[in-house]
Amino acid sequence: MAFFHQDWCYEAHTPAELVARHLPDGAGEYALAVRRDARALLDGLPSRTLEVLWDAGTQYGMGWRQTTGAEWTRTVVDVCDTWLATQTQVPPLTEADTEDGLDHRDEVVAEIEAMKFLTAEVRRALVDCAHHCTPDLALRTLLRAIEYAPEASLSEEQYRRLNGLGSALHYGEFVVQNVEYRISDD
């Protein structure tokens, strides 16, 4: 989702081309992880919910006039599959990359529901993601939504809890830290 920043259209002509251009820059594990997440979304959620999550988790919305959330997510899977088919050796996902967060589902859902600056539709989509995909994917998408929501504001306690969940799910130091600037002084 991070590919879709304000200038992405200068990097590629289509969203699918943008994803394909970023895959060679990363390791094979990255393509496997993106494909795994896209498959989980596609298998677990209806198209409209996917659109809500893509819009919440990207800096600039996709615009759904020419495609649906399901079609776009299928495109991401297909781009990953095509790229992976050209690779001779891609190590399997291991350790933190296989974390699903099932042991932390209730905590993730509670954090999602506490984010009142997000619309009810976004919170509902994130909760559905936690229940029908994985809590890990829902938390990572929530962090992106916090980063891009114009009215986002976190208390020190909320940030501490998010950081604790990130540690429990074996996130690297910058995954949760990317929203630290949203801590409010109030």
TrEMBL record:
This is CdiI immunity protein domain-containing protein. It comes from Streptomyces griseorubiginosus.
